[in-house]
Amino acid sequence: MSPVDALFLSAESREHPLHVGALQLFQPPKGAGRAFAREVHRAMLECSDIAPLFRRRPSSFHGALTNLGWTHDDDVDLGYHVRRSALPAPGRVRDLLELTSRLHANLLDRHRPLWETHVIEGLRDGRLAVYSKMHHALVDGVSGLTLMRRSLNTDPDDAAVRATWTPAPRRGRRESRGLLQQAGSVVGSLAGLGPSTLRLARAALVEQQLTLPFGTPRSMLNVPVGGARRCAAQSWELDRVKEIKDVAGVSLNDVVLAMCAGALRGYLDEYDALPDTPLVAMVPVSLRNERDAPGGNMVGAVLCNLATHLDDPAERLHAIHTSMRDNKQVLSQLPRAQALALSLLLLSPAALNTLPGLARATPPPFNVCISNVPGVAEPRYLNGARLLGNYPMSLTLNGQALNITLTSTEDSLDFGLVGCRRGIPHLQRLLSHLETSLKELQRAVGL
Fold first, then answer.
1. pTM score, two decimals?
2. pLDDT, tens digit (0-9, with 9 covering 90-100), for 147-195
3. Pairing verdict, β 299-305 and 368-376
4. Start-end of H helices in 86-137
5. What is the DSSP code string of 207-258?
6. Which of the residues 36, 111, 211, 215 could staple to 303 if both were Cys, CB 3.0 to 4.6 A apart?
7. CA 331 to CA 342: how far, in whole Å?
8. Strand ranges of the sheet holding 385-393, from the earlier edge strand across to the other edge
9. Maximum CA extent, the chain
10. Catalytic entry in 104, 118, 135, 136
11. CA 354 from centroid of its chain's CA atoms
């Protein structure tokens, strides 16, 4: 087990479930009857060939679970892991998100492989929903969504149901070797952060003004969290974001971060809780390449100045672009294993905040996590049902009561928001603030 995976298992508690998930919406094919969801669920249960990643659970020693190694379950109970649910009438999207919120708050059973899939029917417009979750010790956001994407067909006439847990040919041996290499390289890099590497990191952090942990303001986003969650989701046209990117000469992710910054500024101002100094976002950066095995955590992290103290959306966008450019340049100058190790050091204060009392006793290492995960550009199908939206649902940590994750589906950007039910009031209002922020950015660049 790699140190990153062990950290996710060790930091988990009832108040801090550390799995990642996604809520997918599908439009059933023409002629699909009322039994379509039941047919999809039954077909999933028939996918009994299960990849090693989906058999993995924490090993035990004398009956006690440990966070040091993995063992594999030879008899996976698909009836437990793959479930079918129905929404109460009238089957509104609000009802779907309420169910998703409850499912996302529940801990995964560590005596079983750490994943679940829920087929959900009953939406009044006839759409089908699938909510899936996996422990962050098994996958990062990129690899999790990649596994979900691979399970979908590109041919609408292909009625085969391919499950996320179905192995790819000849992948198992490569997976084991890749995970062992990853664990060894990260351990070696942590041990190898000696004087020369630390001097390099210090020079990168100080001279290039990388945003540092604990230099962030306290905010209403950074409070102790309970175990209950609230989820919100919405899609935006990808072309609206691309137009701003092209006119401003920045990256698409810069625009997304500016869109979130404006929304957070408006949301906090609504509660008279906007700090005078800028909010800081933790932005995951994928370090994965094509040779990496599926699963595991291969994500670096940079801290971005969201410039929420600036009134002008164009100035805010420029500040975000500068912050991300400089910080990613720092990360790119390190070997990948050392970039992972340095990112682990950046993230460790957030994990330590799960210890009682530390969330209040120390400044937050960052204010919010904002993650943009690569999605799909072409249509995808599940038993002929077209994927309409894919809304990532990530995790919150103690002192980090809000998470914003998004991905792309064809010509849309799908935002998934997860917040502590007690700590983030009226989470759905952030959706309207996101729309307002996007319109302000369009006006600011002359669109």
1. 0.85
2. 888 889 999 988 888 899 988 655 444 444 444 444 444 444 444 445 5
3. unpaired
4. 93-105
5. HTTPPPTT-SPP-TTSS---S-EEEEEEEEEHHHHHHHHHHHT--HHHHHHH
6. 211
7. 9
8. 82-86, 115-121, 128-135, 19-27, 385-393, 381-382
9. 67
10. 136
11. 19
